[in-house]
Each structure stands twice: as structure tokens, then as C-alpha cells.
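Lab notebook, design round three. We kept the backbone fixed and only want residue identities now. Task for the bench partner: fill in a sequence for the structure below.
Input C-alpha cells:
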């Protein structure tokens, strides 16, 4: 459920929701929402920030799979349609942002500029 207009949508997969709830319990942050933000980006696309926080005036709030997500109004259009997932891989486990608004550069989806930090 989106509390500020039905235009925007962000979802959390069941795997990500389970992991978020576990972290909330471990860190005693069960009374906080999950804040998602876009914090710049390089030629490989946006960088995401995720942490526990309270909701402020102007934030949009989403309820998905038992998790409350808050997003500031500047990040919201950049995150529309994003699904946050949690995956286990050969190199560890991580949250993954499946954002349909990003375009990957380079032949294999990576940065081709030669600079670090992109």
C-alpha cells in the first residue's frame, strides 16, 4: 500500500522482507521503517542507500510483505517500479535492487570509463 498517491510503487520480495525483519529484531529496530534512497550515481547507474529510520513529512510510505518502506520525494521517481530482493550467491548474500528505470552501460553491464567508484 502506498500512502501518498497510487502513482508510484516499490516492492520488497518475501526473501528481502524476511531478512529485513531479522535484522530489525537483531538490532532492536523493529519500531523503525526501512528508508530507501538514491544517493548519486555514476556511469553504471544509481547508488542506493538503505537503513532503518522514521518517516518525515513529504516521505512516501509503502507496506509490502510486512515491511514498511519510506522514500523521500527526490528518490521516489528514480525508484518507481523497483523490487528489493535478497539473494544468496557464491560470494555471499546481499540485497539487490531490481530497478526498471536504470540502463546498464558497457558490454557486460559494467562501467567502461576506467574510473573507480562509478
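Proposed sequence:
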Amino acid at each position: 500500500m502506498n500512502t501518498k498517491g497510487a502513482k508510484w510503487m516499490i516492492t520488497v520480495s518475501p526473501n528481502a522482507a524476511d531478512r529485513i525483519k531479522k535484522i530489525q529484531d537483531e538490532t532492536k529496530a523493529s519500531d523503525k521503517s526501512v528508508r530507501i534512497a538514491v544517493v548519486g550515481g555514476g556511469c553504471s547507474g544509481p547508488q542506493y542507500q538503505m537503513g532503518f529510520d522514521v518517516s518525515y513529512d513529504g516521505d512516501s510510505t509503502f507496506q509490502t510483505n510486512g515491511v514498511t518502506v519510506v522514500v523521500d520525494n527526490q528518490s521516489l521517481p528514480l525508484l518507481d517500479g523497483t523490487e528489493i530482493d535478497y539473494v544468496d550467491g557464491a560470494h555471499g548474500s546481499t540485497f539487490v535492487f531490481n530497478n526498471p528505470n536504470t540502463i546498464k552501460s558497457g558490454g557486460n553491464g559494467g562501467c567502461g570509463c576506467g574510473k573507480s567508484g562509478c
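Keep this in mind before ordering anything: The chain has two helices and seven strands.
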